[in-house]
Design goal:
Elements lengths: L1 E7 L4 H4 L13 H16 L6 E5 L2 H10 L5 E3 L41 H18 L4 E6 L1 H9 L18 E6 L4 E7 L1 H4 L1
Parallel strand pairs: 1-4, 2-3, 2-4
Antiparallel strand pairs: 1-5, 5-6
Length: 196
């Protein structure tokens, strides 16, 4: 059994200004840097060492990973954030309302908005992370990704509402998952700022 630590990047400028941030990018804030350093301390305190590390191709994720570990890592498009099409960079108030639903579904892929559907995000996250875990020669992997992409990934395994599982998905949230060779199993979620 292998362990995946799947985590979100630190706070960015777009997070502060409540801008939709998917395929677009913005830099880590001072708080985001502090969150990444808290995540590093979280892993060090528990004696967790990574045999492999991967990051989204987006700078906010790779910058976060580099604050946690100085080991070599791969940047993978398959774990990048959900593409929100023409909504990129716009106010989060424009996000569609979806009461009682688990995600935005096909909203950003429909109507000529040029974005991705949730199932497309989920499919690439599952395929990429499964391949990473199967190819890893070790047993502990760190993957730095994004909130929307992580949410889509979790929806494959956990029933909505996920609040029943007390899953934290804020900036630098850490999800501990076990991998049995083909499937992932949710273990726990951590907020490194609360855990240290």
């Amino acid at each position: 059994m292998k362990t995946l630590y799947l985590m979100r990047h630190g706070e960015t400028l777009f997070n502060v200004y409540h801008r939709i941030q998917g395929a677009s990018d913005s830099p880590l804030t001072a708080r985001g840097i502090a969150q990444a350093k808290a995540a590093k301390a979280f892993f060090e305190k528990r004696g967790i060492h990574f045999t492999d590390a991967v990051s989204s191709t987006q700078e906010r994720a790779s910058d976060t990973l580099e604050l946690i570990s100085d080991q070599p890592y791969q940047r993978l498009k398959g774990i990048k954030e959900w593409d929100f099409g023409v909504f990129e960079g716009e106010s989060e108030t424009l996000n569609p309302k979806h009461p009682g639903e688990a995600s935005y579904g096909t909203f950003f892929a429909d109507h000529g908005y040029g974005g991705e559907a949730m199932l497309a995000v989920q499919k690439r996250m599952l395929a990429t992370l499964t391949a990473v875990m199967q190819q890893s020669k070790g047993d502990t992997v760190l993957a730095v990704s994004h909130g929307g992409a992580m949410h889509a990934f979790l929806l494959h395994y956990l029933a909505w509402p996920m609040t029943e599982y007390q899953i934290h998905t804020g900036n630098c949230a850490i999800l501990e998952m076990r991998f049995d060779g083909s499937e992932f199993h949710f273990v726990a979620s951590f907020d490194p700022l609360q855990e240290n």
